[in-house]
Design goal:
Length: 144
Amino acid sequence: MWHVPRDHMLVRGDVHRSRNPTVKRRHAKPDAQAIFQARQNRQSATLAEQILWQLVRHRGVANYKFRRQQPLGPFCVDFYCAARRLVVELDGSSHHGREEYDRRRQRWLEEQGFFVLRFKNEQVQERALDVLRGIELVCRALDS
């Protein structure tokens, strides 16, 4: 059952368009650089991203739909569940030396109302089903 605030009009799926211009958009509008980066990242996925994508695609996590390399505002996130506003990030070797950037990025996402869940690439490669269970538990918790 959908709960739609009075100042919103249901457009399709889980996307709302506000009738009131002072109400913030439900999703952060991506910028052109984030869209370009997402397209590039989809073509050069790491092994961990490929493994997790095979597990979460086609509603593989408790019937929740995930998108990969989704642009959100100025950033591109590894995996995104719009129904739960859940961002799943995989940290591999490309994140070494970028800790401050990752903190700033996570802070921005959380300020926009997204819940950020992080895993190391090794966790996905060695214990993929445990990672999947963790994502499912968070999805269900955010559902409540």
